[in-house]
## 1
Amino acid sequence: MKPYDLRVLSLAAILLTPAAPRLVHAQDAAAPDAAAPDVPAPVVAPEVLPAPEVLPVPAVLAAPSVSATPTPSLADKRNEAALQAPLLSFGEAIGLTLQNNPQRAAARATAQAAQARVGTARSAGGLQVGLSGDATYSKNFGGGGTTIITTPDGSPDGGTGGFGSSSGGNGLRENLGVSAQLPIYNGGRVKAGTRAAQAAARAQAALTLQVEQDLVLSAATTYLGIVRNEQLVGVADSNLAVSRERLRVAQVRFEAGASARLDVLRAQTTLADAEQRRVVAGSDVAQAKAALNTLMGRTPETPLRVLDISAFPAPAADAAVAQYPGVSEKSSDELRAIADASSPALAVAREQIKTAEANLDVAKAQRKPSLGINLSTFLSNPASFLGRFAASLGLGIAQTLFDSGRNKSLIAEARSNVEAARQGLAGQNLTVANQLEQALLAADAAEHRLGSTDTAVVAAREAVRAAQLGYEAGALTSVDVSDAQSALIAAQTEAVNARFDLALARARLASAAGVLTPEWQAAYEAALRDELARLTRGR
């Protein structure tokens, strides 16, 4: 059985399996106790010199639009309220997404409908039994003659001896009939139709698994995005603190006559820009939390607090990276082999080919004759038990002789659908290969960026400190301080992004290969166990 079949059969909403599934992981071949890579110390705010006593500033230099304590934005209020919310772990976010997201529920319901269509297709080759009855009241106003009563086969019986007619015809008459049909041969239509329905059901089950895997990836990347944005808020706060200190120093120097008013104005502009960056960073955090709440089936504004980066099993932002060791070390051929065995998208494409081929067999079978047994019984006046009983048994055969080219067109259409499905699989293989390559290149680039970004942060932090000292000593200008500060912001932002770009690239690499990381797998299995327990209690 193929690896994806294990997951398809584990869909608890379709088939109530007694145990939760286990997906195939590429890391099974990797060392389970591989140590997490060394991670440099997390980014911290640059150091600033102790602030001397602030001297009065002339009113003309005061910037009303720049405030040390600006009015909190809506995002800041949301983030402040989230501080009182219970902590939401990485695995809990994935589990809640799988349990509550409507997309998953809709996909599973669609898979159940596809599974039910298998029984519908199979029933076409089984015994069909029907029951019919009618009651007729007749009154002869002509003083004689014959009342025409319809016989069970629908033909009129004019009183020539067939059952179902009466002379004089006054009163109530009841009829009860039972019919049964059993197909003996239908040219393979039922068998081919059943195969088509089964392939379609497997394709829908694989598509459901694809939806689940996409939701897992979305929940994971959104959660990591919150942590990333919260670190960027820290960078913005550090920048804001440095900008305020620069404005304070500029004001002191201007009052002492050591610098021009232009330095103060530049410092005010830099502070205003820092405040704007802080507003954007806070908004990004709130928006990422709203997105995660939506994935988890909650209202977007629900207070949400994620784990601090230090709470992850591995140091700093490389926690998610350590969840799937060894993926980026594999070659492109190895990754494509994993995807071929495990990718739900490729499984869907393969089952679509089988569906199209079975539908072609159905179209071809329309040319062949059908043969069946028919049994019918008829009881007249069953209420009074005074009527007559009749039964008939027959063998029926049907063969289309001429249909103006309809069946030929159906076969041509079915052949085209088979070719389209095969080309769809070829295209999906290319898409998966491209996704793997893109994620592999992104992970490799992020890995190579890590060392240089950490070095850049250390150097930029020292440059800001040196620029501040030089400016206070009168050896450097405010432009030098601005340049150093901008370089530090860029270095800190790049360091944060490099770590999370590596985590996201490896997550996308695993998803494109059709596997889950160990922590994601544990959350997935926990969600299935919870769902199975609910379904069992509901029986």
## 2
Amino acid sequence: MGPAVHEAGIGEHQPLVDGRVVLISVLSIALAVFAACVADLLLRLIYLITNFSFYGRFSADFADPTTQHVGLFVIAIPVIGGIIVGLMARYGSEGIRGHGIPEAMEQVLVRQSKIPARLTFLKPLSAAVAIGTGGPFGAEGPIIATGGAMGSLIGQILKTTAAERKTLLAAGAAAGMAATFGSPVSAVLLAIELLLFEFRPRSFIPVALASSTAAGMRFLFNMTYPVFAMPVLHHAADLSLAVYIAVGAIVGVASVFVTEAVYLVEDAFDLLPIHWMWWPAIGAVAVGVIGYFAPHTLGVGYDNIAQAISNSLTLKAMAMLCILKFVSWAIALGSGTSGGTLAPLFTIGSTLGALLGIAAAKLMPHLGIDPRVAALVGMAALFAGASRALLASVVFAFETTLQPLGLLPLLGGCTAAYFVSCALMPTTIMTKKIARRGVRVPAEYVADFLDQVLVGEVAPREIICLNADQTLEEVRRWIDSSAPGSTHQGFPVVDQDKRLMGVLTRRTLLNSANPGDKKLRDFITRPPVSISADATLRMAADQMVNFDIGRLPVVDADAPQTVIGIITRSDLLRAHRRRLTEVTQAERSIHLARFRPNHRKTRDVEETASTPKG
């Protein structure tokens, strides 16, 4: 007898973790150390370029382009940076264009998580040039993309599977975000919601270890403070909580507008009659002009976010920052330069939320609305609506402010924004670009139905087995007699002790080239492939695909050589049809229940109209 289920290597229940998970986890921890160092180096490189561009000095110390005094030259500096980025994209790699996350998603979905090695170096370098010369982006996007590229590169060098490369890519990306913001939990959630498209121990454990390691490395660099520090918040009252949820819904509408505006600008650049290499320089003209009149729109602008959620900006300053930062960022990103989306979205969302909170506080002073909470909700809600990373957005706002009393309004506001975004927009700011290329991005993560049904529940128990010592001619006469079961397309073959030897198809049995005097055992050319009754339909489907067969003998779990049934591809489809039928019937019941009162009301009106008066 050939291999049973456990020997075939697929039919058994796979362990949640094994030696490969340990290996990937160790690699993820090492990758996190690298990502944390890259985050620190990239920030220093941005400061170096900012110092040189706006202050004429060679230093890697903190530098803010908003405090420069270069006059009209502030318009030329972003343009020069745009030219350099365009040249790097043209002659280095076109993959450096954009903010990196959509490209990483595309690599995961259609290219087995294989990112070209050169992007590991070109992406952070191009982003440093774009941001250091005044680009209105955050450093987190390029850091996330670089960490993911490094994870993919390690996976390619070590000959890992596509699933393991995806885990390493997500681990590197999560480590980059955790190292930048000190937000390990939200980094893991972001990886799950935007890159892994799954939640299972084999991928979750390495990503979580990488994220926590990178956050710990950030502490080694003496960055223990919250990125967006704000005053202590108070409990949200009942009615004020409703206002914060309404703020989230309005910001959700804004997230749709922001997403569509960015791609509208991108489409406009596609119409230009010049090579795309020059587009970043053209977009940088708008960055420079806006930066001349509103310097706070230049650069990363993390301080803008902190001031917005602390309500330390004037009403006019917040309105100008919200509008002008959006215009500058949308044009720059749409031009195809290198930069991130998180920080600009947080800036726009926090200022918009603060404006809505101030307006609500003036209209309803008795509710005790706190504009700072509204700003915090706006910051997270805009990202939740634009990216649909709901849980990551909520936890991120908490981790970067360390304000636990903001969690309740954050959850309500971000969920409202998420709801509005799902209702009004089929794609997101992360997925629209790759969706246009024909890539379908999963939007719902549900348990596999086939993994919830056991083979024994579906496989027919009435099975006809052939004896290995029968001759082919005897079986042919039985088939010609049209006896019950003789029309099956495949038959398990057993020996005298009823032990499975293999499966013969109807085609083999009726093939005229096969001599009729030979016994059935002579036509069994390979060991049997079977499935245990307590295995799942997913395991059965995997068996069929891996061994290129259409039917599987079902064996007793306690006696793996004893055939108790057989399962075919049609049985898998019937089981799936049962699920669809249950869903359809449930939807039909809801539909009928919804309209039944109207029908009853109409019938009552008709009966009243047909009843003779007095």
## 3
Amino acid sequence: MLGLAAWVGALSALRLPWGWRLTLPVVAAVVLVVAIGVIATAVGARRRRDSAGVTVVAWVLVAVTVGAMTAMRVHANRSGAVALLARSGAVVTVEGRVVSDPVVRAGRFGTYSLTRLRVAEVDGHGQHVLTRAAVLVIADDVWRDTALGSRVRVTGRLGPADGPDLAGVLSTRRAPQMLAHPAWVFDGAASVRAGVRGSVSGIGPNARALVPALVDGDDGGMSASLLRDLQTCGLTHLSAVSGTNLTLVVGFLLVIARFVGVRARGLVLVGVLGVAGFVLLARPEPSVLRAAAMGSVALLGLGSRGPDQGVRALGIALLALLALDPWLAVSPGFTLSALATLGILLVAPPMRDALDGWLPEWAAEAFAVPVAAQLACTPVVAAISGQVSLVAVLANLVVAIVVGPATVLGLVGGLLMLVLPPLGTACGWAAGLCASWIIVVATRMARLPTAAVDWSPNGPAIAVLALLCIWLGLAAPRLMRRPGWSGALSVLLVVVMVRPLPSPGWPPTGWVLVACDVGQGDGLVLRVDSRTAVVVDAGPDPVPMSRCLDRLGVRRVVVVVLTHFHADHVDGLPAVLTDHHVGEVDVTGLAEPAHGADRVRRWAAAAGVSIRVPVYGEVRRVGALTWQVIGPERALSSGDHGEEGSVANNASLVLLVRTHGIRLLLGGDMEPEAQQRLERALPGLRVDVLKVPHHGSRYQDPGLLTRLGARLAVVSVGRDNDYGHPSEITLGLLRGAGMTVDRTDRVGDVAVTVRDGNLGVRTRGSRR
């Protein structure tokens, strides 16, 4: 409760309307009044020997103190000199210390980096001010090599920050001027991190990226598809700094210390030094400090074989973390870490003790810990992702045997690379072998038909899920004491995972097109017969595309049409090629982006499927389904630019589809320039259904969209995407033209139906 009180105090200051407006005098007055009241109440309670009263008073004092400290820091960020300069858009020169590793992102016009800077001095508008404000530096990727702990000087333009944890955002095109290099401990940690990467440089790309993530949270090289598979399987904690990393590293050090004869206080010292070394290795950033605290608490709680000591330690850890960094109160990672640790402390011991009667102790603990952590985190994960993983516990159990060796061997390999590179490479190879098993488990289990089930992220649904998880946590130990019940439930869970759950009423009768809910991308299925289809684009991820085809009962794909080579249209292709009989892959003539085109060629070659570029105007017919290529009407080159600067979007294959008496227009991501060319080429074009180009982006040609005469518009788009898709302007344009609009981010899969000659639409699930 101590940690919860601190959490409530921090959230009140960050989320309530009045929290951040408290000025220093008001905060001081509030704290003084509350403190006097608390002390008076505590004295009275002690006289009455009322320990419960004292405890409640302590909680109130903690909540008010942490809330007041948070409000003061928010007020300082929003009203200090840096914030004032940011509101005026001033050009400034700042000096400060780099407090985060630069993160490189891909933008529309190239890559850029994000770096947090703790500003010590700022010059702007003729003022020289000393401060301790934090700013986010947005710069060219020349900042990517700026080392954590460096003191730098840079000139740029300040702008206001969105969140309360920053005083401003500094935009610059200049490289930082180095004033002081990091301390030697940072250099040493950087050398070990480089050693870990070097030790695995000769192994496969996915394993090469996963080993550094296991050792020190360095996940910069991991592919988006692997990260999604890990998330689906509940293994995300392996790809980021978490308490798991710390327990493995520190546990290994303690085993070595015991082996060489260290005992009692010496082991405590080794543990403390191990935690400090881990923090330095993984970078002393808020997420790392959080992981170190939670991992230490989990070790303490499990080691004591009783929850009381661990729960008290968790409360103190939460209080300390929130006092140091109150912004953690609104961090999903912090919430998940705290809940997982609480689950391990409170739920795992009864489960472990229940299983001890018929399982070895190591097996009982190996099963109880991931089950408890998963139950505690499931409601929050569902609120974030809209899914509940059914394979998480099994996946964690299957990989548990190799997580420790992969982490320890990776660390040892990184250390040996500094002194004996051949031995370091050997350890790295062994670590990569273990990591490869984790990757195989994640990729295979993520593709099980029911690896995860959709769960609405709205309040009532999450409340029901939370109550269900609490009930399971209380009931599980009773069931686990009986081997028969445990075995039967395990078999039932496995059957559910490997067999698709029934979808009553899906697919709907008379469906002719389904826009699959694949996230931020396009994945369309045109029906030929009950088992055969044409697929137009495959989405950004194999898993949702595969599940959509399974729900529809599709086994044979005559043609896969990839409108263009952007990842959100092609990265799900492996699921179509490996799980179905595919005739051919049709692609646009412009092989941009090149890496997307290369991947498609590689995947098709591995599946033995041919690739062709259809010619403008060609017509294909399969059964009752006919489609014609009506765009692009000419070959495009890198010199052609649309309004968003995307040649690939304007090179999208555009299909006019006829089936069961209706016409559908599938336009990929074509932008206004391509839309205008289409309108000039086919001025009288009329359709019944429009797949809205480019996920409903605001870059549309009103003339084309409003003159198509479509009755139904389908928007394939991801929930809470970063692009602002679909645009309210575009949605208004479509509705103003008389179209009914359905979007996959709100209603899931969208099916267009034709029954008795009547056009209809059915959706699989609502996310409203």
